[in-house]
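User: Working on a comparison across species. This one is TolC family protein from Flavobacterium chungangensis. Can you predict its structure so I can line it up against the others?
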Amino acid sequence: MKRIFLIVLCTLGVTAGAQVKTLTLKEAVTYALENKADAKKAKLQVENSEYKIQEIRSRALPQITANGNLTYNPIIQTTVIDGAGFGQPGTTIQAAFGQKWTSTAGVSLTQAIFDQAVFTGLRAAQSTREFYQINSQLTDEQVIERVANNYYSVYVQRERLILLDSNYVNTQKVRDIVQGQFDNGLAKKIDLDRIIVKMSNIDTERQQVKNQIELQENALKFYMGMPIESQFVLPKEEFEVVPTSLTEEPNVENRTEYLLLKKQEELLVFNKKAIQAEYYPTLSLTAGYNYIGQGPELPWFAKPSSGVYWSDFSGIGLNLRVPIFTGFGTRSRVRQADVEIRSLQEDIKDTKLSLDLDYRNAMTQINNNLVTIENQRENMRLALDILSNTKNNYLQGLASLTDLLDAQNASLEAQNNFTRAVLNYKIAEISLIKSKGELKSLTK
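Assistant: Here's the predicted structure for TolC family protein from Flavobacterium chungangensis:
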């Protein structure tokens, strides 16, 4: 018993300690942009683009390396030379050149003087940064859209549960009335059974909606990057319908999706130029300074008295590379890059049409849903009046139980239809805001 008592106390403590936060759409969107993995990864890509740019720039800077080696020659190679150079014409001398031990240490430098590929890469660096910045903005907009749509879906499910709870309470009152009539012999048992079945069906639907609410809330928390155990309530003001004023048709070329494709096209053009740069000659500067030690024993720390001698040597040079024929490989890669550009240009044209379609469809849905909302609001009012009158008539014996149950069903259906119409309007409103490229306005 003590153990059970402690468990109950702990449970109550956790429940009491849980904070239920009022969550507006702006707060939900802002939270998602700060915590959702997609948004964070997009910002990391922007950061990573700076390192990629630094990598490209490094190709235009001097490349300095240090090198060293130690070689032991157990058998020294011999060279056959003409003895005439040593005053012995007509003879051949076999001589061994080198030492048993050789060690070299040095520094080398390479600097690109002219390399068209490097210059093209440097010009593409700024476009690379802008590409990732636009991509991050597009990711933020996608996060906002998902959160907004799920936010309204959660609200609708909660409204459905409120309607069902109200309907359950009203049906329970009718059951009590029928129960009293049945006890006094004024109602049939079949009437009482029907109302009990009605209550059971409503309760079953309530349980289903509760499950849908939990699933929808978990989806919203996931899209926000919020811990699943978090709890929140949605203010009713967020679901009010404010007719959207008609605006001029937006310029689709300012949409993030379009800008991203145009920036991608720009990068493909640079890629084509980088391949074409293989037709150009390259010129680079090389320089090196080395120190070499040779002798019959390990040169390190040895002295001339041991037969080991150290000396330095250096060199400076220019390397010129002129491509003449590459087996048409470069030409093939240039043509492949050109095909990629033309293919992307077709995607850009199609995207412009799609973005324009999104705007027009959103405006159509907005207008249609406004009409539907007004119709459903009137239907809901009429259904409530019918239910009230039918209930009074039933109590006075002027209407049957079937009429009362039908009126309740009609009233509930009208209220659900109104809620769905509002949801459709809100989703269409998000689509319209997106089509105008103003999703970030939901964070203000």
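For your comparison, note: The CA atoms of residues 258 and 270 lie 19 Å apart.

User: Helpful, thanks.
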